Amino acid sequence: MRKDYRPYYIKRLDLTFREWYAQHFLKPQFRHLGKGCTFMKPWHVQVFGWPIDLGDFANVITTPDHRVRLTVWGRTQGEGFISIGKYCLICPGVRISAATEITIGDSCMMASSVYITDSDWHGIYDRLDYIGSSAPVRIGNNVWIGDSAIVCKGVRIGDNSIIGAGSVVPRDIPANSIVAGNPARVIRELDPDLPMRTRAEWFMDPEKLESDIIGIDKDMLKDNTFAGWLKSVFFPGKGN
After folding, report:
1. Beta bridge partners of 156
2. How far is the C-alpha of 22 from the C-alpha of 4, rounded, in Å?
3. What integer pLDDT is reported at residue 239 of this predicted model?
4. Of residues 123, 126, 145, the one with CA closest to residue 134
5. Which residues pair with 151 in a beta bridge?
C-alpha cells in the first residue's frame, strides 16, 4: 500500500505486538539485548548460536523475503561471538556469521543484504572442514556499509568509514575512508576536522523522540477509519 490506511489505535496495537514478540521470543536468544531496540517484523529475525549481543536503541528491519540472520557457529562449544554496539541500523537481508569474533561499534549502519563473516566456512583443501580459515572482524564506530557489500575475515574497518554498495572488503580499511570495488580500495578520504553527526545524536533524548514519533503518527492517521482500512485490505483500489 502506498498509504497507511490504519487508524492510529490499530497501528499502536501492531507496534505493541511487535514489542511483545521481540521481548518474548527474541530476547532469550541474545546474551544481551539492549534497551530501546526496535524490530520491524521481528518474526523474520533469525538468531542461531551463542553468545550474541545487540546494544541499546538498535533498529532492525526485515521483510519476508529478506530475513536478518545472526549466526555464531564455533569450531568448539563456547567459541565465537557477535557483539553489535548501540544505535546501529540493520536493514533487510543482513547476515552476520561468526566462528571466532565479530565486533561492530556504535552508530553503524548496515544496508540491505550486507554480509559480514569472519570465516571461509569450508577448508580450501579439506571441504569437510566446515569452518576453514577464520580471523576476527572488528568494525569501528559510525561505519556505513552499503547495499550488498561483503566484509571478509580478519578485516578491521576504522571509525566513520563508508563501504560502497557491492564492495568486497578483504583487507583493513583506515578510519575516515570511502572505499568501493572488488577488492575494495580507498577512493576518497573524509575530513576528520569537519563535524560528524551520528545516529547516537538522534537518540540523545529517547522520550522526546518517542513523543515526536507518536505525534507524527497521530497527525498522519487522524482521518483514517476502521472501515476504510478494511476496504484498503480486501478491496484495494488503484494506488492502494
Report:
1. 138
2. 23
3. 64
4. 123
5. 116, 169
Q: What is the average pLDDT score of the chain?
A: 95
- Cα Rg for the chain, rounded, in angstroms? 20
**Dihedral over Cα of 43, 10, 2, 211: its sign:** negative
Exposed, middle or buried: residue 54 (CB in 10 Å: 0-12, 13-18, 19+)? buried
Using a pLDDT cut of 70, give the percent of the chain over it. Answer: 98
Does residue 122 carry a catalytic annotation? yes
Cβ-based neighbour number of residue 10 at 10 Å: 15
Polymer length of the chain:
240
Distance linking the first and last C-alpha atoms of the chain: 5
Burial of 184 per CB tally in 10 Å (0-12, 13-18, 19+):
buried
What's the CA gap between 198 and 15, in Å, rounded? 25
Buried b (16+ CB within 10 A) or exposed e, 91-119: bbbbbbbbbbbbbbbbbbbbbbbbbbbbb
Q: Name the catalytic one among 24, 32, 44, 122.
A: 122
